[in-house]
Amino acid sequence: MVAKDPNFRPGGINLSWLDIEEKRFDEARARLQKMLTTRADDPDVLYEIGVLELRAGRPEEALQHWKKAHEVQRADPRPGLATIDALMGQRKPDAAAAAAKSLAAAYPEEINVQLTLSQALLGNGDTAQARQALQEATRLAGFDADRQVHIGRLQLSAGNPEGASHNVTKRCRRGQMT
Predict the structure, then answer these.
(1) Which of 45, 77, 90, 126 is the most buried (most CB within 10 A)?
(2) Which pTM value belongs to this model?
Protein backbone atom coordinates (compact mmCIF):
# COMPACT_ATOMS: atom_id res chain seq x y z
CA MET A 1 0.00 0.00 0.00
CA VAL A 2 2.88 2.40 0.76
CA ALA A 3 4.28 1.84 -2.74
CA LYS A 4 0.96 2.99 -4.22
CA ASP A 5 0.46 5.83 -1.74
CA PRO A 6 3.59 7.10 0.07
CA ASN A 7 1.36 9.25 2.30
CA PHE A 8 -0.49 6.21 3.70
CA ARG A 9 0.01 6.96 7.41
CA PRO A 10 -0.46 3.50 8.96
CA GLY A 11 1.93 1.93 6.48
CA GLY A 12 4.56 4.60 7.01
CA ILE A 13 4.32 4.26 10.78
CA ASN A 14 4.57 0.47 10.58
CA LEU A 15 7.61 0.67 8.31
CA SER A 16 9.25 3.10 10.71
CA TRP A 17 8.68 0.58 13.51
CA LEU A 18 10.50 -2.05 11.48
CA ASP A 19 13.38 0.39 10.98
CA ILE A 20 13.43 1.16 14.72
CA GLU A 21 13.47 -2.55 15.61
CA GLU A 22 16.44 -3.03 13.29
CA LYS A 23 18.15 0.05 14.79
CA ARG A 24 17.99 1.92 11.50
CA PHE A 25 17.14 5.13 13.28
CA ASP A 26 18.14 7.50 10.48
CA GLU A 27 15.83 5.74 8.02
CA ALA A 28 12.94 5.74 10.49
CA ARG A 29 13.54 9.38 11.35
CA ALA A 30 13.59 10.36 7.66
CA ARG A 31 10.37 8.44 6.98
CA LEU A 32 8.54 9.99 9.94
CA GLN A 33 9.85 13.49 9.23
CA LYS A 34 8.64 13.17 5.64
CA MET A 35 5.21 12.26 6.98
CA LEU A 36 5.20 15.50 8.96
CA THR A 37 5.61 17.51 5.75
CA THR A 38 1.97 16.81 4.85
CA ARG A 39 0.68 17.48 8.37
CA ALA A 40 3.16 19.12 10.74
CA ASP A 41 1.03 18.60 13.83
CA ASP A 42 0.09 14.93 13.39
CA PRO A 43 0.04 13.69 17.00
CA ASP A 44 0.52 10.04 16.08
CA VAL A 45 3.61 10.74 14.00
CA LEU A 46 4.99 13.08 16.68
CA TYR A 47 4.44 10.35 19.26
CA GLU A 48 6.24 7.80 17.09
CA ILE A 49 9.18 10.17 16.59
CA GLY A 50 9.38 10.41 20.37
CA VAL A 51 9.51 6.63 20.63
CA LEU A 52 12.20 6.56 17.95
CA GLU A 53 14.32 9.19 19.70
CA LEU A 54 14.09 7.43 23.04
CA ARG A 55 15.13 4.12 21.46
CA ALA A 56 17.97 5.95 19.67
CA GLY A 57 19.27 7.16 23.05
CA ARG A 58 18.07 10.75 22.65
CA PRO A 59 15.63 11.22 25.55
CA GLU A 60 15.54 15.03 25.42
CA GLU A 61 14.43 14.94 21.77
CA ALA A 62 11.85 12.30 22.67
CA LEU A 63 10.45 14.52 25.41
CA GLN A 64 10.19 17.46 23.01
CA HIS A 65 8.20 15.43 20.48
CA TRP A 66 5.89 13.97 23.12
CA LYS A 67 5.28 17.45 24.52
CA LYS A 68 4.27 18.70 21.08
CA ALA A 69 2.11 15.61 20.46
CA HIS A 70 0.33 16.27 23.75
CA GLU A 71 -0.16 19.95 22.95
CA VAL A 72 -1.73 19.43 19.52
CA GLN A 73 -4.44 17.03 20.75
CA ARG A 74 -6.29 16.18 23.94
CA ALA A 75 -7.77 12.78 23.13
CA ASP A 76 -4.81 10.44 23.69
CA PRO A 77 -2.79 10.31 26.92
CA ARG A 78 0.03 8.20 25.38
CA PRO A 79 2.45 11.13 24.85
CA GLY A 80 2.01 12.21 28.46
CA LEU A 81 2.37 8.67 29.76
CA ALA A 82 5.54 8.20 27.71
CA THR A 83 6.90 11.49 29.07
CA ILE A 84 6.32 10.41 32.67
CA ASP A 85 7.87 7.02 32.02
CA ALA A 86 10.96 8.63 30.46
CA LEU A 87 11.31 11.09 33.34
CA MET A 88 11.10 8.26 35.87
CA GLY A 89 13.70 6.35 33.84
CA GLN A 90 15.96 9.41 33.96
CA ARG A 91 15.54 9.48 37.75
CA LYS A 92 13.74 12.82 37.76
CA PRO A 93 11.02 12.07 40.32
CA ASP A 94 9.96 15.69 40.86
CA ALA A 95 9.48 16.31 37.14
CA ALA A 96 7.72 12.95 36.69
CA ALA A 97 5.31 13.67 39.57
CA ALA A 98 4.55 17.16 38.24
CA ALA A 99 3.91 15.81 34.73
CA ALA A 100 1.73 13.03 36.14
CA LYS A 101 -0.39 15.48 38.13
CA SER A 102 -0.90 17.60 35.04
CA LEU A 103 -1.83 14.57 32.95
CA ALA A 104 -4.26 13.32 35.61
CA ALA A 105 -5.99 16.70 35.57
CA ALA A 106 -6.43 16.40 31.79
CA TYR A 107 -7.50 12.72 31.84
CA PRO A 108 -9.16 12.09 35.24
CA GLU A 109 -11.16 9.08 34.00
CA GLU A 110 -8.24 7.18 32.43
CA ILE A 111 -7.15 4.32 34.68
CA ASN A 112 -3.66 4.10 33.13
CA VAL A 113 -3.14 7.77 33.93
CA GLN A 114 -4.18 7.21 37.55
CA LEU A 115 -1.88 4.20 37.85
CA THR A 116 1.03 6.13 36.37
CA LEU A 117 0.26 9.05 38.68
CA SER A 118 0.39 6.74 41.69
CA GLN A 119 3.73 5.28 40.58
CA ALA A 120 5.23 8.72 39.95
CA LEU A 121 4.04 9.92 43.34
CA LEU A 122 5.45 6.82 45.03
CA GLY A 123 8.76 7.43 43.24
CA ASN A 124 8.70 10.95 44.61
CA GLY A 125 7.97 9.77 48.15
CA ASP A 126 4.42 11.15 48.29
CA THR A 127 2.53 8.13 49.61
CA ALA A 128 -0.53 10.13 50.74
CA GLN A 129 -1.31 11.42 47.26
CA ALA A 130 -0.34 8.07 45.74
CA ARG A 131 -2.99 6.43 47.91
CA GLN A 132 -5.58 8.91 46.62
CA ALA A 133 -4.65 8.11 43.03
CA LEU A 134 -4.88 4.39 43.80
CA GLN A 135 -8.30 4.88 45.36
CA GLU A 136 -9.43 6.56 42.13
CA ALA A 137 -7.84 3.75 40.07
CA THR A 138 -9.74 1.21 42.18
CA ARG A 139 -13.00 2.94 41.30
CA LEU A 140 -12.12 3.07 37.61
CA ALA A 141 -11.07 -0.60 37.54
CA GLY A 142 -14.49 -1.76 38.66
CA PHE A 143 -14.44 -5.53 38.92
CA ASP A 144 -11.50 -6.10 36.55
CA ALA A 145 -9.69 -8.77 38.55
CA ASP A 146 -6.25 -8.31 37.01
CA ARG A 147 -6.36 -4.55 37.50
CA GLN A 148 -7.53 -4.93 41.10
CA VAL A 149 -4.62 -7.25 41.88
CA HIS A 150 -2.19 -4.80 40.27
CA ILE A 151 -3.68 -1.91 42.24
CA GLY A 152 -3.53 -4.00 45.41
CA ARG A 153 0.20 -4.52 44.91
CA LEU A 154 0.66 -0.79 44.43
CA GLN A 155 -1.39 -0.19 47.59
CA LEU A 156 1.09 -2.37 49.49
CA SER A 157 3.96 -0.31 48.00
CA ALA A 158 2.18 2.77 49.30
CA GLY A 159 2.05 1.25 52.79
CA ASN A 160 -1.71 0.76 52.62
CA PRO A 161 -2.56 -2.85 53.49
CA GLU A 162 -6.21 -1.90 54.10
CA GLY A 163 -6.46 -0.58 50.55
CA ALA A 164 -4.82 -3.73 49.20
CA SER A 165 -7.30 -5.83 51.16
CA HIS A 166 -10.16 -3.84 49.63
CA ASN A 167 -8.80 -4.57 46.15
CA VAL A 168 -8.59 -8.31 46.87
CA THR A 169 -12.08 -8.29 48.38
CA LYS A 170 -13.46 -6.49 45.33
CA ARG A 171 -11.84 -9.15 43.14
CA CYS A 172 -13.37 -11.97 45.21
CA ARG A 173 -16.87 -10.46 45.11
CA ARG A 174 -17.12 -11.35 41.45
CA GLY A 175 -16.25 -14.99 42.17
CA GLN A 176 -12.97 -14.62 40.36
CA MET A 177 -10.63 -15.78 43.11
CA THR A 178 -8.12 -18.23 41.78
Answers:
(1) 45
(2) 0.87
